[in-house]
Design goal:
The structure holds two protein chains of two kinds. Chain A is of the alpha/beta class. Chain A contains 13 helices and ten strands. Chain A has helices at about 5-20, 25-35, 40-55, 95-110, 125-140, 155-165, 180-185, 190-205, 220-230, 260-270, 285, 290-295, 315-325, and strands at about 60-70, 95, 115-120, 145-150, 170, 205-210, 210-215, 235-240, 275-280, 300-305. In chain A, helix 2 packs across helix 9 (about 220-230), helix 3 runs parallel beside helix 10 (about 260-270) and helix 6 crosses helix 8 (about 190-205). Chain B is mainly beta. Chain B has one domain. Chain B has one helix at about 35-40; strands spanning about 5, 55-60, 65-70, 70-75. In chain B, a hairpin with a 3-residue loop joins strand 3 and strand 4 (about 70-75). The chains are: A alpha/beta, B mainly beta. The interface between A and B is medium-sized, with 31 and 22 residues.
């Protein structure tokens, strides 16, 4: 008979397994961590921070993101205000190349090393690929920054062309664990997402692959997402907290409790000890200023600076001042975490 | 940098507030838009305050631009200088 693992026990197990031996937590162990109580939160965050410092170091990777093509997406991701299937007030709009370059310059001025171009599409058509060719070339001519992209599902030919353009990293999130995915998206499958992720990994581009939490999934399903990301071994995991968008199927959900969000951050770090773990959307709403600080001391080692795709973020000065206070240097352009 | 070409303040409230709330698209008068005002810290406006048309909104890392086909565009920097 196996003894019941208590909150304290699982932290002891995680310390020996993850911190000392570098072995990620299993799905069941991740769920146990996510079930620990508020009385264990401080110790959990401290452990996750130790893991981050040991395997990733103190540097923080800073990235800016911009929407090249906003709205009008044919997919039905239930969290997203850019789906054309919902009554969201977000209208379709394209960013022109000069504005794209200006956004990259703004981002680079913060010290960021990554600039991600995002489009709300199922996958890129020829018009979007042409915009990417022109846009990536214009950015590279004007700004010293890594260019990343997030354009939905890709064909092998499109993967190859993005590599040729010099795209450094490609984002394609799993969004949710396999068992909850059908509750989140019905217009494409979890396996279709995996196909693109695998092609990207094999291409030489770095894979950025994360998801959202707080969409009504169970603790087990949240742990499943972390474990499935661990199996995929992306270079970076962006962690989004649902920001309920008006008009979307998840628009009436309540934002996640900050303690749950912090437990999730720490659990993801213990599941992914060697992966860049980035604050992505929703942190302002879910965590606020104090929670942002706690997360950076609880496993997070990358941030998105400034605004998101359709919503606004913190003033970069606040984030950069916080990193300075925490003695977490911004990762240099040619540094590897 | 702030440039304005024809649109008034896009959120509820202000001297020239128009007839519609830029955040929720409902009439400014006769409703409480305190939540909309709070939301404007993290949301650009989506509705023209003069005609309630849905605006084309582009968010970039350091700014947003909202455009009404009838009443013009407004751009706001979201970064302190």
């Amino acid at each position: 008979m196996t003894a019941q693992v208590t909150g304290t026990d699982i932290l002891d197990v995680a310390r020996e397994q993850v911190l000392e031996r570098g072995v990620p937590l299993s799905q069941e162990q991740i769920a146990q961590v996510m079930r620990t109580g508020d009385d264990q939160l401080e110790a959990l965050l401290a452990l996750a921070h130790e893991v981050r410092m040991k395997y990733q170091g103190p540097a923080v990777e800073v990235e800016g993101i911009v929407s090249l093509k906003t709205g009008g997406c044919p997919e039905d991701c239930h969290f997203c205000s850019q789906s054309g299937q919902f009554t969201s007030p977000v209208r379709s709009v394209w960013l022109n190349i000069p504005e794209l370059v200006r956004a990259a310059q703004q981002t680079a001025a913060t010290g960021a090393s990554e600039f991600c171009i995002v489009a709300a599409v199922r996958g890129p058509d020829e018009k979007l690929m042409q915009q990417m060719r022109e846009g990536v070339a214009a950015i590279k001519a004007a700004v010293d920054i890594h260019v990343a992209a997030s354009l939905g599902m890709l064909t092998q030919a499109q993967v190859d062309e993005l590599v040729d353009m010099g795209v450094h990293r490609y984002n394609h999130n799993l969004e949710a664990g396999r068992s909850y995915f059908p509750q989140v998206v019905t217009t494409h499958s979890f396996d279709e997402r995996l196909d693109t992720c695998r092609m990207v990994k094999e291409s030489g581009m770095e894979l950025c692959c994360g998801g959202l939490v707080g969409m009504g999934e169970s603790i087990e399903q949240r742990a499943e997402l972390a474990a499935q990301l661990g199996e995929l071994e992306p270079h970076e995991v962006p962690l989004n907290f649902l920001n309920p968008r008006p008009g979307t199927p998840f628009g009436d959900l309540e934002p996640m409790e900050s303690a749950d969000a912090l437990r999730t951050i720490a659990a993801f770090r213990l599941a992914l000890p060697r992966t860049i773990l980035r604050y992505a959307g929703g942190r302002e709403l879910t965590l606020g200023d104090l929670g942002t600080r706690d997360g950076l001391l609880g496993g997070i080692n990358a941030v998105i600076v400034g605004n998101y795709l359709t919503t606004l973020g913190r003033d970069p000065k606040e984030d950069l001042a916080l990193l300075d206070e925490l003695e977490m240097p911004i990762k240099a352009l040619n540094e590897t975490l | 940098m702030v440039t304005r070409t024809g649109a008034s303040e896009p959120v509820a409230g202000g001297a020239d507030r128009g007839s519609w709330c830029g955040q929720c698209g409902e009439p400014v008068d006769g409703a409480d838009h305190a939540r909309c005002a709070r939301r404007s810290d993290l949301e650009p406006p989506r509705w023209c305050v003069h005609c309630r048309r849905r605006m084309k909104v582009q968010v970039t890392p350091g700014a947003w631009t909202a455009s009404c086909i009838e009443h013009g565009s407004i751009e706001r920097s979201t970064w302190s200088s």
